[in-house]
Specification:
CATH architecture: Up-down Bundle
InterPro entries: MFS (IPR011701), MFS_dom (IPR020846), MFS_trans_sf (IPR036259), MFS_Transporters (IPR050171), Sugar_transporter_CS (IPR005829)
Number of strands: 0
Number of domains: 1
Pfam families: MFS_1 (PF07690)
Keywords: Cell membrane, Membrane, Transmembrane, Transmembrane helix, Transport
Largest sheet: none
Number of helices: 18
Membrane topology: Multi-pass membrane protein
Order of helices and strands: HHHHHHHHHHHHHHHHHH
Structural class: mainly alpha
Domain Major facilitator superfamily (MFS) profile: 17-412
CATH class: Mainly Alpha
CATH superfamily: MFS general substrate transporter like domains
Length: 415
Amino acid sequence: MTAHAPVKATALGIRTNLAQFTLLVAVNALVGGMLGQERAVLPLLAEHTFHLTAYTAALTYILAFGVTKAAANYFAGAWSDRYGRKPVLIAGWLIGLPVPLILIFAPSWSWVVAANVLLGVNQGLTWSVTVIMKIDLAGPQRRGLAMGLNEAAGYLAVAATAMATGWLAAEHGLRPAPFLVGAAYAALGLGLSLLVVRETRGHAHHEAAITTQPSGPALTSGQIFTRTSFTEPALSSVSQAGLVNNANDGLAWGLFPLLFAAHGLTIGQIGLLTALLPAAWGAGQLLTGAASDRYGRKPFIVAGMLTQAAALALVALGTTFWVWAVALSLLGAGTAMVYPTLLAAIGDVTHPTWRARSVGVYRLWRDGGFAVGALLAGIIADLYGITTAIWTIAALTAASGLLAAIRMYETHPRT
């Protein structure tokens, strides 16, 4: 029995590691909830409480969030290889603890921006590490399913929390009630990560020992960055698609609530619409991640980016609640095709010895898209209006899908 213990401890597969895998799904739902507490409320807080009239100024919190999350993603990959997955996860939750309290008591908008710097670090460390840990546990055969479950949990929690905080804001005001939910999430996430989550780095070492995939020469972090960002066709296609995907999500997060409010929608209606995007996004990933294990990654990535572009065009054309409800559901469906599939493609191409660092580089680009989207959309909205900003991001999203169609090869062909 003793001789077999090490193999059991590092055996790969979702079913084999079901208890720990399920726990990590729950932890990532709490990570998503930390983001969801802001989705419906913060744009309205900028306008009604702090009286910000320029869209660019109002979107500074998304810019701060995107930049810090992108950087944290990069370091999460490197640190999880050096120090282990669990210490990085715990550090992310510790950094996220004060965020809800700062949002509740912020006397000026600069405090809100500072809270989003901390939130960006929290999201970058915790979400990146839960992704890496699930890849560690799942092994090569079910990465798409693993990523679908991970991202579904996170974004369904974003949706549920956005809806809940929208209702709380409508009933009890923009502060403090909505952010008390985030405080509970942070405390629970830290407790689970400290007491119940187990280290998974050994599973990656085990996969590296048994894999038939050639590792090639040892790669430096700089070489991994260059390969993931620019030179390897599939990895670089994934990176640019991730950046553009989150650019349009930054647009949706920052400007859609203001667009809906300008057309006379209530806070409750805005909260519902704000929840539709991550709800469709989250639920859809339960299907698309597993489907990409069967049919390949590239079709979902290309079709998803083009679907998002069409949905953004419908948002720009719409003026009523029901048109926007259809558009945001479609936008969520397109994002669901892309999100878990991009991560699974990274897992397909990279070797276990440098996979975590490549995931960190990809997520650096992907979440840098929040900053790109906030800055680009804010400037264009200030100069030409929200509708023009939406059309611009829609065109950029369509171009991203076409680029992936031309440059990317299939990383997980149907067997």
